[in-house]
Specification:
Largest sheet: 3 strands, parallel
CATH topology: D-Maltodextrin-Binding Protein, domain 2
Number of strands: 3
Number of domains: 1
CATH architecture: 3-Layer(aba) Sandwich
Strand order of the largest sheet: 2-1-3
Structural class: alpha/beta
Distance between the termini: 97 Å
Order of helices and strands: HEHHEHEH
Mean pLDDT: 78
Shape: extended
Radius of gyration: 26 Å
CATH class: Alpha Beta
Strand content: 5-15%
Low-confidence stretches: none
Helix content: 40-55%
């Protein structure tokens, strides 16, 4: 009985260590192979985050191996490539994506990457949209 009581703390530490080790190695045991993906972006400043994510390996960290990255001058060109099946993933402005979806292209919007992307910038003194006329 005395031996069992003296071993209890040791057994507790061993079990806690085993549980911790299991917790740490489980993600590596079941990590799936990265999925190959062809991606496209528009050639504008909104795609900067995609290039940064690619450079920092963020896609790879999420299990995506970006095998191809194509740039398109406009969102309409990008949406057309998506419609044809030339690309699998698009980092695109919402307008062309919604237009493609409205035309029956089976796409899913999974994330929004920016808010308030563009603005009209004017010189000081202009206070009304009517002053831009002409």
């Amino acid at each position: 009985m005395k031996i069992a009581k003296s071993l209890a703390p040791v057994i507790g530490v061993l079990l806690a260590s085993l549980a911790g080790l299991t917790f740490l190695i489980t993600p590596y045991m079941f990590k799936a192979k990265a999925e190959n993906v062809a991606m496209a972006v528009e050639f504008n400043c909104h795609a900067a985050a995609a290039w940064i994510a690619l450079d920092k390996g963020l896609f790879r960290d999420e299990g995506l191996n970006i095998t191809t990255i194509e740039t398109f001058a406009t969102g309409l060109e990008l949406a057309a490539a998506l419609t044809r099946g030339d690309i699998e993933v698009a980092w695109a402005c919402l307008g062309p994506a919604i237009m493609a979806y409205a035309r029956g292209v089976p796409i899913v919007i999974v994330a929004q990457t920016h808010l308030h992307g563009y603005a009209i910038v004017v010189r000081p003194g202009l206070t009304s949209i009517n002053q831009l006329n002409g």
